[in-house]
Amino acid sequence: MARGLLIVFEGAEGAGKSTQLRRLADCLGAAARNVVAVREPGGTIVGDEIRRVLLDPESDIVPRAEALLFMASRAQLVEREIRPALDEGAVVLVDRFFLSTYAYQGVGRGLPEEALRHANAMATNGLVPDLTLLLTIPVERGMARVVARDRGLDRIETVALDFHERVARAFETFATRAWQSEHPECGPISLVDATRSEHDVFAAVLADLHTRWPGTFPPQA
Ligand code: Z5A
């Protein structure tokens, strides 16, 4: 059986990653494709426990511990869910992966990139996404969507705005060819303008995927 595909959704807060991932999972499910959708942190019993600790506004976590907790969740997710699903030929959709670590723990918290890179290589055991869809949106627009969502803010969302501005600028850097050529462990990255309507963003996502893998993704929903 052919190996499946690992597609990652990334971007700053409020870019609409979860919304687009859900739409894609529904679309593939309706077409009877084998599709597995997971999010980081979480997606396993251990990972969901780690998620609860990481996002709890009451948790006091130093940056290095925060990075290692994300890595522990990732290692568990890759080994228990992602690799087995890929081996069965599934399309695996992941809400955030290690671009988020480079953005939040690297640029946001100021941890050294090389240390994160090594820890990530251990967590993923060398797994490289087939494609990362990087949803781009100005920080104020993304944060406005998060606030309007009317759900409490988690520990990371409550960090000061300048942290989120650094994170958003990091995602802009990741969108450049220069950064991508220095980070082959991230695999190919495709930019998606996330300021458009949900419908238009999804049309762009599907068109991109169909161009790359016409046998797996339909041209439109
Ligand atoms: N994190 C980290 O620090 N390091 C890591 O290595 C990893 C993660 C993997 C996980 O939070 C947190 O962990 C996250 C990064 C950090 N921290 N923060 N802050 P999460 O899993 O709870 O949530 P998230 O990944 O941060 O999701 P999000 O950014 O808040 O949202 P989103 O998935 O991009 O957007 P959404 O939920 O699809 O949509 C947000 C709202 O906008 C919602 O009301 C939608 O209906 C609306 N929306 C969506 N699309 C549109 C369009 N196109 N137009 C208008 N409105 C829209």
Major beta sheet, strand line-up: 2-3-1-4-5
Report, as a whole number of angstroms, the end-to-end distance.
Answer: 26 Å
Biggest sheet layout: 5 strands, parallel
The class by helix and strand makeup works out as: alpha/beta
Rg calculated over all Cα atoms: 17 Å
Bound molecules: ligand Z5A
Helix % is 40-55%
* Mean pLDDT rating: 95
Order of helices and strands: EHEHHEHHEHHHEH
Structure in a nutshell:
With 221 residues, the protein is α/β, with parallel strands linked by helices. 53% of the residues lie in helices and 13% in strands.
3D architecture notes:
By secondary structure, the chain is of the alpha/beta class. The chain has nine helices and five strands, in the order βαβααβααβαααβα. The protein has a five-stranded parallel β-sheet, with helices on both faces. Helix 3 (63-87) packs parallel to helix 5 (113-124). The two termini are 26 Å apart. The model has no long low-confidence stretch (mean pLDDT 95). The site of ligand Z5A has 27 residues, from helix 1, helix 4, helix 6 and helix 9. Residues 11, 13-19, 39-41, 70, 95-96, 100-101, 104-105, 145-146, 149, 154, 156-157, 197-198, 201 line the site of ligand Z5A.
